[in-house]
Amino acid sequence: SSPPAAPAPLPKAELHLHIEGTLEPELAFTLAERNGVTLPYATRDELRSAYSFSDLQSFLNLYYALMAVLRTEDDFHDLADAYLTRARAQGVRHAEIFFDPQAHTARGVPLATVINGLARALDAAPERHGITTRLIMCFLRDESAESALATFEAARPHLDRITAVGLDSAEVGHPPSKFREVYALAREAGLKCVAHAGEEGPPAYVWEALDILGVDRIDHGVRSMEDERLVARLAAEQLPLTVCPLSNVRLRVIDDLADHPLPAMLDAGLLVTVNSDDPAYFGGYADDNFTAVRDALHLDDATLRTLARNSFRAAFLDEATREKYL
Ligand code: ADE
Ligand code: ZN
């Protein structure tokens, strides 16, 4: 007789996923060849050996370098479709997907190419993969506030495809307050707002994201645990945090998964979700992160179900759809 089938992964929403961070070495080489782009790595193994990071910046260097292979609408489509295939196998039913427009327009790839390619894959996703999606446009915080404003204005014709704005890239030295103006415009335009804060940066950046940017969710936010008043605020407002455990370990935000503050965050009454960030780089997609925290932190089934349920509570879904998942 055959061995018992592995249990189906819990249905969940993925709320912290950079589409560029789903570029697997295999697809990177395929696209490099298709586009006549030369990568500074001869083989997949040589590339894989570059995936050892000391901090956020050391990862970002490789993340931006590999984007050189993304040139055409088809490339962005194929990237997103490959992600959606993997996501469904990990129990993902709804995915809110970040993209970094400035990382592409700076290389001469038009914004419409990026958005149209991604949108073609996302529009097909309910039928093709059984996944609903949202698109979140992120500003690179290590670029200027003016560049973020110009990016937002360039995206105006596409806002019907964009649910929220976000803030990512090198955190320390680039506080949320730098982006006050563009977030005000985004809110005026009816968009939701999120921001990476409290990953490498201090709790003060989480306060700024809340009070100055008016965010609806905090991405990462693990360093909030250093500030009792902040934890109380986040708990009282049930302001969601999209935590990325495998990312935190690979980027040395946390020394060891066994020391991850996830259980303390749950105990403090925070609305925490578990997500994959840049799964091609950090060794795991959505359910891989669930499994990793289950094993390292000895989480019971009820806690895992709470985390899955939180992902739908924190998602940008209409209430009728949310009810179906809860
Ligand atoms: N861009 C892609 N992944 C990121 C992360 N974990 N933090 C900040 N910027 C990012
Ligand atoms: Zn991220």
UniProtKB/TrEMBL annotation:
- Could you name the active-site residues? E199 (proton donor)
> What EC identifiers does the entry list?
3.5.4.2
Query: Which leading EC class covers this enzyme?
Result: hydrolase
Residues under site feature: Important for catalytic activity: H220
Reactions catalysed, as given in the entry: adenine + H2O + H(+) = hypoxanthine + NH4(+)
* Residues that bind Zn(2+): H16, H18, H196, D277
Gene Ontology MF terms in the entry:
hydrolase activity
Recorded family membership: Belongs to the metallo-dependent hydrolases superfamily. Adenosine and AMP deaminases family. Adenine deaminase type 2 subfamily.
The molecule here is called: Adenine deaminase
- Tell me what organism the protein belongs to: Streptomyces catenulae
